[in-house]
Amino acid sequence: MIPLIEPRDYASADTFRAEVDRIFLRRWIFACAASELAAPDDYRCVEIGGLPVVLQNFDGELRAFTNVCSHRFARLQAGAGGNRELKCPYHGWIYNAEGLPYAIPRKPLIAEVTPTTLCDYRLSRWHVRTVGSFVFIKKATEGAALAADDLEQQFAEYFEPFLEYATACGEIVENTEHIVKANWKVVVENTLEGYHVDCVHPTTIKKLGMTGLVKTSEGSGEAPDPAAGRGSYFTFTGENSAVFSPLDPEIVARLDRAYKFLASRPQRLEGYRHYYFFPAFVFASTRGESFSIQRILPIDEKTTQLTSYLFATNGLGDLTKMEAALKKQFYAAAGEFVRAIFAEDAAICEQVQSAVAHASGPGVLSDEEERICGFHQAYRATMATAL
Amino acid sequence: MEADQFVRHFENAVEGIEPNSLSPDTQYHKIPQWDSLALLCLLAMIDCEYDVQVGGMELQTCDTLGDIYKLVAVKKRNQAA
User: Fold this and answer.
1) Which DSSP letter does residue A216 get?
2) Residue B22, Cα to own-chain centre: how many angstroms?
3) Interface touch A258/B15, C-beta < 8 Å
4) Residue pLDDT, tens place only, A164-190
5) Subunit contact B45:A325, Cβ cutoff 8 A
6) Which of A52, A178, B27, B74 matches a 20 to 30 Å C-alpha distance to A27?
7) Structural contact between residues A372 and A365, judged by C-beta atoms closer than 8 angstroms
8) C-alpha R_g of chain B
9) ipTM rounded to 2 decimals
């Protein structure tokens, strides 16, 4: 398979600006965990291609706005998140759930701001949608209603399974942010193939005993079964793709015996599942024991913000003291495992970025990299769409 | 002896070990059942039975189960002080 994205598009500022306009401002983007916005005045900040967005809890109602004060353009909320009202730190304008400045210090001195002109100072609003444990945002199109049902369309046939997994997520075990000095597409492509595992993750992922790709008749409905020669397989829907990988049955049996406290988990997946939702969201789980989320957002054409969450499963019921201690060790080890993998992936992505502009040809993709091909097709189709 | 009791807890926590088959002189990292899973079970057992947190790296200074018990005992004393 021949890649559809040119090497120059991984390092071009013009391409980056077009991607932000055509892709990132027109899709649902994972913003944060719902538990991070649980209390009134909780807020989270997200930056999408340089555009600052704030999500805010207004007495239980979640709203998102462009994070820029209408008065003198200061950022309303700073940092990754926290708890404070939506108040500009510069001159103290306070905004309500409608994005209107309802409290303006010494307002009579600003003749232009009257009850009839107040709407001119309304913050730009974003759509907000909560699915299970996750909050998504999408830039509101001017004049369009705040309809949110196109999240289902964007996730296509994966929406239903995603919803099931999303409701099985328990507490956040780990939440980390990495700045990767590589184009966002390099980071996405790295998540979409297992071909690099032997070289990049010899002491981490490879040790899990995952099988490589074994081509099966697509859609045959046969579960992967290494004993029967059926290994990992891919599926595609809309702009998205997934891989299902069985684990070594001996390892699975040992895990079941060692981690009996996980037996009541609501999602008892066979093996490892990894979903990619174009353009910036990755959702994965090993056996439904833990759930890993990644948000891949471009900062500029050569820098990407990779935010990751690790969730424990819910539904474990009352645990004995020993089970609770084992659960703590299990998720601590899972967090350590995820950190090690991200460090390995970040390093190789940065190596790719340092060389991609000097590529002498379009490159090539193996069958194991078919999901990259799906990503390229979605990317090309979106970039060719007229705004 | 308390070290013997620690060994009994270890045998109970790690899957596949016969009761009363090990002693404080056992080099834990040489037993056939020792792997990353056994490590997590050991750390959980220490947390549960002794209310002490031990990191995986700290075990690198220990050769035998008795050494681990001494490490736990020191931590427990420091915790109480």
Assistant:
1) -
2) 11
3) yes
4) 898 899 999 999 999 999 999 999 999
5) yes
6) A178
7) yes
8) 12
9) 0.84
